[in-house]
Design goal:
about 160 residues; alpha+beta; about 50% helix; about 20% strand; elongated
């Protein structure tokens, strides 16, 4: 029989409370256990002494007879000085996933294209400000010229009707 030291959940919905129990590894999470050796209340502040209560003598006994602690319980045992836990390092923890990287690349390329377009427009505007001024006036003159015949044609249509 494989024995594990793990958490068994209790409490209400959205109000978790855990027992630190020694149980057969094949038993259900909240099911039958051999012995309760402590409690864990995650709702209390991290510096509170009531957050984790552990019977260290019983924990040492069960570890001595071959019980395996889960990761979370191993942290509690390490904090209590019962069992050393090797520090783990996950260098990829903060690294974004593949799709997030793709979105970031697309965003960067779009920003780069927009920046280049803005630079080209600024360069074109700086190179020929005098040339653009008459070009802007010409369409205004054409529009004014086009408006006059259109209004005259409308007047002729009304006279005919």
């Amino acid at each position: 029989m494989a024995v594990s030291i793990r958490l068994s959940r209790g409490g209400a919905k959205k109000r978790p409370y855990y027992r630190i129990v020694v149980a057969d590894s094949r038993a259900s999470r909240d099911g039958k256990y051999l012995e309760q050796i402590g409690t864990y209340n995650p709702l209390l502040p991290k510096d509170s002494g009531e957050r984790v209560k552990l019977n260290e003598d019983r924990a040492r006994y069960w570890l001595g007879v071959g019980a395996q602690a889960t990761d979370r319980v191993a942290r509690f045992l390490d904090a209590a000085g019962v069992k050393e836990r090797a520090a783990r390092n996950n260098p990829k923890k903060a690294e974004p996933g593949e799709k997030a990287k793709e979105r970031a690349e697309e965003k960067a390329t779009k920003a780069e294209e927009a920046k280049k377009a803005a630079e080209e427009e600024a360069a074109a505007a700086a190179a020929a400000p005098a040339e653009e001024a008459p070009a802007e006036e010409a369409p205004a003159e054409e529009a004014a010229a086009n408006d006059t015949p259109a209004s005259e044609e409308a007047g002729e249509e009304k006279a005919e009707g």
